[in-house]
Amino acid sequence: MPRRSRPGQVLTTRVGLRIPEAFSFTEWERAGRQLAGVVDSSSWWLGDWMAYGKDHYADRYQQGIRSAGLRYQTLRNYAWVARRFEWERRRARLTFQHHAEVASLPVEEQDRWLSRAEELSWTTKQLRGALRKARGTAPTAASRAVAYRQLAVPSERFERWLRAAERSGVGVDEWVYATLDSAAELAIAQGAGASPVRGREGLVPSGGPASEGARVPV
Q1: DSSP class of residue 103?
Q2: What is the 3-state secondary structure (H, E, C) of 61-85?
Q3: How do residues 45-90 score in pLDDT, each as one tens digit?
Q4: What are phi and psi of 215, to 5 degrees?
Q5: Buried/exposed code over 22-46 (b: 16+ C-beta within 10 A; e: otherwise)
Q6: Residue 111, class by beta-carbon neighbours within 10 Å (0-12 exposed, 13-18 middle, 19+ buried)?
Q7: What distance in Å separates the CA atoms of residue 28 and residue 61, rounded to the nearest whole number?
């Protein structure tokens, strides 16, 4: 049974919220901000937790993930973003998703875009739009390199990646980079060389027709 809440207090339980009948709009709005803060912070918490486990318990960390009932793919993405930002570079005024949007950029560019997002009070969507516009008008060194090598991907596979990225709360580019990086690390660690590695979402392509698919930079 959930514990009793005091009058005017929201009670959190494992399966939901108990909100008082007499609850003003101001109180409801404040509760929403607090809940959003917890959700955003939890992405950082889980990312740091995953990174620590991988660094300290390389042979057992996946057992810990299963015991906690957490999704490995989601945690792997969180950990990738967390590793890209040391504590002192994380912006408390911005969300985890803001950081995820720029995580694949060089450190100097990450800081520049995050500072701009703070100054202009950009939402994640606005930051993403600004990044896309900048890439279209002034390609970075990384984006210029993409032109030399592209991977043809069947459209149904790309759509699956997109759904997985959305569920993980990151952009598809970040999701692809994070998953490929993790798969590469695993293959190298196991001495697998260039052997194909298939993740839980079937990330690494295994060939096949892709005449109508998207092209993903690698």
Answers
A1: T
A2: HHHHHHHHCCCHHHHHHHHHHHHHC
A3: 999 999 999 999 988 988 999 888 888 888 989 999 999 999 999 9
A4: -115, 120
A5: eeeeeeeeebeeeeeeeebeebbeb
A6: middle
A7: 39
The residue whose two tokens read 């299963």 is 66
Which contiguous run of DSSP H or E holds residue 151? strand 150-153
Residues 49-74 as b/e (b if ≥16 CB within 10 A, e otherwise) read: bbbebbeeeeeebeeebeeeeeeebb
Count of residues in the chain? 218
CA angle 95, 100, 102 (to 5 degrees): 110
3 state SS of 171: coil
For residue 11, the SS3 value is: strand
Tokens 């792997």 sit at which residue? 76
